Each structure stands twice: as C-alpha cells, then as structure tokens.
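Here is the promised in-class demo. Please do not try to memorize the tokens; focus on the logic of going from shape to residues.
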C-alpha cells in the first residue's frame, strides 16, 4: 500500500490515498492517538461520504426516484459509511507538514450524483487538523451527509462529551427510539470505555469532546458544530470510535429536520473540520 508521510517534531501522520483516502497512523508528541483495527478497512481513520453510517435496506427514495446504494461501490446490505472510503484517492499536494487528497465521483450505479471530496491535513507538534470539503459537481441537487471515522486506543480511555441522549437501534443497527439519557449523563461526567458496549448515535452534541488516557489527554473539536456523535465501543476490542457526523444513521430515509440530511445544489460545497489536539490535564 502506497502511503504519504508527514512529520512535525515527534508527531507523525501516515496517509493511505489508495485505501479510501484514510489515515494509516497518527502519533502526536510521540504518543499513539489513532489505532488501526484488524477489521476492514484496516485504517486508523477514514472519511464517511456522501452519507454516513447505515441506511435501512441500502435504499432510499429521492424526489420520487428509488436509489439502490448496494448496486455501487458501497456494496454492503446497508451501504455502510458511504463510498468515499471504498475508492482510491489521488494526492493533490504534499509538503513536510501538509497534504491534500481528492476523490472525484462522476456518478454511476449506487450513487447517481457527481461529487468531489477534498481532505486537507495539517500536522503540528501537538495537533492534527483535517478539513473535508464536499462539492456537488453535477447538474442536480444532491442529498448528503459527511463525517469522520477515527479509531482510538481503548485501554484506560475515559470519554467526556456533552450530548442530550442517544438512539436505541434495531437488530440491523438502525435508530428506532431516542433514549439513553442516562448514558449521555455519564458521558458528560466521564464514560469509561472498558465498561461500555455501544454503537449509538448521540444527539445534541456541542462539537467538543475529550479523551483522557492514563498518560495524556486529547481534545476533539468539529467545526461547524454538528449535532451527531456516533459512539462505537465494541466489547473486548482494543479500540473505540467517536465519529463526528453531519447527520444521523439512515438520514437518507428521514427528513432533514429530524435526521440532519443536507442538500447541496450544483456547484455548492460543504466543509467540515476535525481537530485532534494534545491537551494539558484538566477536568472538563
């Protein structure tokens, strides 16, 4: 797998353009920040676009037209996490501390809307900033959602994030009932990852989170503020995920007001930025 490497003092970022434009490795200040799991795609972070998470039945209806997501690159029965992470990207620019990767989809089976997605990475000795810019390059309006899917080391991790509650899901992982206020309350105070088994979209997020490990803390910030934070803590795994996303799972089958689905007009763009920064020890 061909990679692109950036460095800034004791920080190192390794990108995998050919493997979905994702991150293979990230260390900040010499500390492991992201951990690639053994499960596919084997990346430490990847983009979710032009939709996020699961779509019920892998299908949706857009302005009277039924679209089968499984007929294209998404492949899986629920079109898991979009198509951007399943396609090769190209390197548009690279320097010692910065790089830009791009994916261009001209439309086709599984997603008839043409779009481009550029991800810009800026590494410093204590932080990584990822800017994702999604553009509608087609002639018709395009529904969309955009997100990041990072994997963090689970050992000793405690997560602080302010949300109002999460969704109970069905057997296929599709949200069905808003609830989990008690879990959200514990996450505001500090959720010990080793004690949880979640795959849940939490709503009412303020765009900020903090992970405390025994040796260091990490501040996470999404801008603009997005309402949805997917929390994935598989029991017994050595990783967990906090996934900032502009819409909830199955947003393509929900209205914009409840699911967060966005619409890009031709030539319109949407930008979402994720910041991962080492932080001094402090209580939230």
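The designed amino acids, position by position:
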């Amino acid at each position: 797998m061909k990679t692109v490497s950036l460095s800034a003092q004791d920080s190192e970022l390794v990108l995998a353009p050919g493997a979905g434009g994702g991150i293979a490795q990230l260390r900040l200040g010499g500390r492991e920040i992201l951990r690639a799991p053994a499960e596919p795609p084997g990346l430490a972070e990847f983009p979710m676009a032009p939709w996020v998470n699961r779509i019920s039945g892998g299908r949706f209806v857009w302005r009277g037209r039924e679209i089968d997501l499984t007929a294209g690159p998404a492949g899986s029965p629920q079109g898991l996490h979009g198509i951007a992470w399943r396609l090769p990207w190209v390197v548009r620019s690279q320097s010692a501390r910065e790089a830009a990767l791009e994916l261009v989809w001209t439309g086709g089976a599984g997603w008839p809307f043409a779009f481009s997605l550029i991800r810009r990475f800026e590494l410093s000795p204590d932080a990584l900033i990822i800017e994702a810019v999604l553009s509608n390059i087609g002639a018709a309006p395009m529904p969309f959602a955009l997100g990041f899917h990072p994997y963090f080391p689970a050992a000793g991790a405690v997560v602080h994030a302010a949300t109002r509650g999460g969704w109970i899901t069905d057997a296929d992982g599709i949200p069905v009932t808003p609830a989990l206020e008690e879990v959200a309350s514990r996450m505001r105070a500090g959720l010990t990852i080793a004690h949880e088994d979640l795959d849940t979209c939490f709503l009412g997020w303020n765009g900020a989170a903090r992970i405390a490990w025994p040796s260091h803390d990490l501040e996470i910030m999404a801008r603009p503020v997005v309402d949805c934070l997917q929390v994935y803590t598989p029991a017994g795994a050595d990783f967990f995920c906090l996934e900032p996303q502009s819409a909830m799972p199955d947003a393509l089958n929900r209205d914009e007001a409840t699911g967060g689905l966005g619409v890009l007009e031709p030539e319109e763009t949407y930008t979402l930025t994720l910041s991962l920064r080492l932080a001094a020890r402090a209580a939230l």
